[in-house]
Amino acid sequence: MANIINKRFIIPVLILFAIVFPFVTQNDYFIHVMTLSFIWMIGVYGLNLLAGYTGYLSLAHAGFFAVGAYSLGLLTVKAQMNFWLAFVLSLIITSVLGFLIGLIALRTKEHFFAIYTLCVGYILYLIIDKWDSLTEGVRGLIGIPAPGNIGPISFETPLSQYYLVLAILLVVILIVYRIVHSLTGRTYIAIRNSEDLALTIGISTMKNKLEVFVLSTFFAGLSGALYASFIRFIGPDIGNIVITFDLLTYLLIGGIGTLSGPIVGTVLVVWISQQLQFLQDYRMLIFGPILTLLVIFYPRGIAGSIAGWNAKRAEKKLAKAQQDERFSQSPISAENQVKEG
After folding, report:
1. DSSP 44-92
2. Is there a single domain that holds both residue 56 and residue 152?
3. What is the CATH number of the domain that holds 167?
4. What's the mean per-residue pLDDT of the chain?
5. Can you list the residues of the chain whose pLDDT is less than 70?
6. Which domain covers residue 330, as residue numbers?
7. What ranges make up the beta strands (E) of 201-341?
8. For the segment 19-77, what is each residue's pLDDT rounded down to a tens digit?
9. 65 within domain boundaries
């Protein structure tokens, strides 16, 4: 049952729901909110690979998100570059920056790594905020173009952008799924469980950590670039540490270290936030205690807890079946069966 809920059931059902969602609602605002949810999910999947499967919590995710967004914005608005070329270059820029930062950051561990990446994220935010001649500072970048046409396919309408982002999200989910169920994914999990043990069995931990760190920043940059092309206006606030905490909230509530967690957590929190917009100034007072209780009592989030519950049920059923089998094969049971015969 756990596997059905976690892998074979939730993700396919949610994908089917996402495909038919615009036809069910026919509401542009709902489509807008769901598109934003998909964009956030991509960033959360990157954070999940690093924190959930490798055990390294990066607090610079908002900074890389902003780098991807601003790279696309500057290349299209100021350099007047073709959208898709700028889109690819923005991902390369974010990944290269992630590689350079990862070379230093990954020499630290645990809370030192989190503190270091927190400082890196804040530095990236300050650069975007203060470098007026390049980023326009607090004025932000306006006029970022929508995704360019691909042959006869146009992405000017909200519906077309919705399906474009959904298609990219599905590719990201497939990539993450293949990674997690490969030898590489098992290597990441080995590093998470015990880095020292992973070293003793010959795993190049630095190489694998740098690989997953760059991949995580790539997804963050991809999420940021899609956000910039969808909103078409960006300001320094997208690099604020609050964005990182939002992404982390989506991950923890949905289920860290699970495939369906980023989907469940992002959709749930984003839609609840939309319904509680009148309490926007107090959102951290609302989600803070909820997140604290969740971490204490359900550390693996919604998807992880469901998987855990069903795993326990499966263990109990297996234990009962083994007990019944031992009883049926015991001499006393055989004697009783002979007497009854």
Report:
1. HHHHIIIIISS----S-HHHHHHHHHHHHHHHHHTS---HHHHHHHHHH
2. yes
3. 1.10.3470
4. 84
5. 1-11, 277-284, 287, 307-308, 311, 324, 327-341
6. 300-341
7. 233-234
8. 888 888 878 888 999 999 999 999 999 999 999 899 899 999 999 999 999 999 999 99
9. yes
